[in-house]
Design goal:
single chain, 587 residues, mainly alpha, elongated
């Protein structure tokens, strides 16, 4: 079985490159030569000389002649489609005829062409049996791209009659016709047609269905080939079901699977997703022990994992090691490294890699531009961010929402609200819908500039456009209102926040407590403080300091000292105590 698996594994790789397109060879037959002979090309003579049994499901002399005539014409005539069309064979053909003809055609390309011709005949529809037949034929002939497209069509056709359950019907139909193409007495036989089904399901986003096909195969003691296995593991990873990745992999190995570099890459990626870098590098070492050479994808996954864990030195070392081993970094590798440096405010190293990448002829994509623009924005270097933005657009790369958000946030942080609003209008012109991050940045910008009314208008616009505010959005607006002495209005937004299904947090309570204390509303501030405790939140320095300051200004020094002592006890476990106001007692 393992020999059969390895011999076809490489060929199955092509299936994943199949896209949702029609079969390219569905063209009308064209006869290049002259047609001076009879259109029927001696059909009666051919049928009279045809002495073979053409199948038990076709009975009667006329049916036998009909099948024989089609087979002879398709096999011998270079313009058989035209001949069949001119003689009205399409008016009589039915799925049983198609099955019989497919069974007798020896050339898989001819069989596929006939299948396509039949599908174009008026009033004719392919059945599960005809699709199963042709898929088996092209798969057996190693025509895996064609098999993938046909499988997609088969699933789509079945979905019309069996919505939500199509893949099961497809599996059963393929299994029913399996006896013609494999020895069912050999339970170890590898049935590539099911591998094609697994990959087709995954390509359609039917990940759970692809996994179910795997287990249906295992119950019949069939083992998918390595390419289909990797498709399954990758599908589970996309579903964030890393736990199932390992259980499925163990079952695959126990069934005789020999993992290749693609399987290892998927497993290493799974470990990096779980932040288990040590296990990822153990697999990396295992690959080398088994003489499996890591690819640029292997190195890129590990480098990305190291960068996300803030291990930039290790990432840099591995980056240089791969180049020393003649494994050239690609866009993803450079993107991971640049993202790591930029997120740590090391734009110098990030830009150095950008220049190196360009010198090697690797053009930046939208992800790389996004990384660098965001890095400049966080450093408030809007001039350089704008330069990169113009460069990107000049290269024909369309900016996405993330890039606009970075620029808007950067301009808001520098107080350039007019420029931020211009970018927002530009988003609409580009048919890009501002998201919650866009609006939160703008609301923050207006609140910082003490333009809270405009910030409130933006919140209303969010609701009108169906953009759901999050806790950060509300907390930012609540803070802006409290700083303007509008704590009661801020409290109203807190109520709205809860009504919209959001959970208030420490920031919400501390901001409201601070706002009420500054307005001398100590009773309400203390009520919020008690509610905070009831909900299980530990007050932070802001809440304690606001209450202490409020009590002191209210002349209630005893309560102020009581809270101060309470804060000191809490600070030993939860936070570092800072005393910002000079009038507080110094020990």
């Amino acid at each position: 079985m393992l020999e059969q698996v390895s011999s076809r594994a490489a060929m199955l790789k092509d299936i994943q490159q199949t896209t949702q397109r029609g079969i390219g060879i569905r063209r009308k037959g064209i006869c290049s030569g002259s047609r001076t002979t009879s259109r029927r090309e001696g059909f009666d003579r051919l049928a009279d000389n045809h002495n073979e049994d053409l199948g038990s499901s076709i009975t009667g002399k006329n049916e036998t002649k009909f099948i024989a005539n089609i087979c002879k014409t398709v096999t011998r005539s270079s313009c058989w489609e035209t001949v069949l069309n001119d003689n009205k064979f399409g008016d009589e053909v039915n799925p049983i005829h198609v099955l019989q003809v497919l069974s007798h055609l020896k050339n898989p390309t001819k069989a596929l062409s006939f299948f396509n011709w039949a599908g174009k005949q008026k009033g004719f529809s392919h059945t599960a049996q005809t699709y199963s037949k042709i898929i088996h034929i092209v798969t057996k002939a190693n025509m895996f791209n064609r098999a993938g497209v046909l499988m997609q069509e088969f699933i789509a056709l079945t979905e019309k009659s069996e919505p939500g359950n199509a893949y099961v019907k497809v599996f059963e139909a393929l299994n029913m016709s399996l006896k013609d193409y494999t020895n069912n007495n050999n339970n170890n036989t590898t049935c590539v047609v099911f591998d094609v089904l697994i990959i087709a399901c995954a390509q359609k986003g039917l990940f759970q269905e692809a996994i179910d096909v795997f287990y249906r195969m295992r119950r019949r003691r069939f083992m998918p080939m390595v390419q289909a296995c990797n498709t399954l593991l990758s599908a589970l990873l996309k579903m964030d079901r890393v736990d199932l990745v390992w259980s499925l992999y163990e079952e695959m190995v126990s069934s005789g699977l020999r993992p290749n570099v693609y399987i290892y890459n998927t497993l290493i990626n799974a470990n990096c997703k779980e932040r288990k870098l040590q296990k990822a590098f153990e697999l990396f070492d295992e690959m080398k022990t088994k003489k499996i050479d890591p690819t640029v994808v292997t190195y890129s996954i590990l480098i990305s994992g190291l960068c996300k864990e803030d291990k930039m030195q290790e990432a840099s070392d591995l980056f240089r090691t791969m180049q020393a081993l003649d494994v050239a970094p690609n866009q993803f590798t450079y993107s991971a490294m640049m993202d790591g440096y930029c997120k740590r405010a090391n734009m110098k190293e990030g830009l150095k890699l950008y220049d190196e990448m360009r010198q090697k002829g690797i053009e930046p994509n939208v992800v790389i531009y996004c990384t660098l623009i965001d890095g400049h924005c966080k450093e408030r270097n809007m001039e350089e961010a704008n330069k990169l933005f113009v460069e990107m657009v000049g290269k024909g790369i369309t900016p996405n929402v993330v890039i606009y958000n970075s620029l808007i946030d950067g301009h808001c942080n520098k107080g350039n609200l007019e420029e931020a609003l211009t970018l927002r209008l530009e988003m609409f012109k580009m048919s890009l819908m501002p998201d919650v991050f866009t609006y939160s940045s703008l609301i923050k910008g207006f609140c910082v500039e003490e333009k809270v009314e405009e910030a409130e208008h933006l919140l209303c616009e969010m609701h009108e456009r169906g953009v759901v505010p999050n806790c950060i959005t509300y907390n930012t607006l609540i803070d802006g209102l409290c700083k303007e002495g509008k704590s009661e209005k801020a409290l109203g937004y807190c109520v709205q926040m809860v009504e919209n299904g959001l959970v208030t947090d420490v920031v919400t309570f501390s901001t409201l407590i601070d706002g009420h204390c500054k307005e001398g509303k100590m009773e309400k501030a203390l009520g919020l403080y008690n509610e905070m405790l009831v909900k299980g939140f530990t007050p932070d320095v802001v809440a304690y300091t606001a209450l202490i300051d409020g009590y002191c200004k209210d002349g209630n020094v005893q309560e102020a000292f009581k809270l101060h002592d309470e804060m000191e006890v809490a600070s030993e476990e939860h936070f570092i105590f800072r005393c910002p106001d000079s009038h507080l007692r110094q020990d």
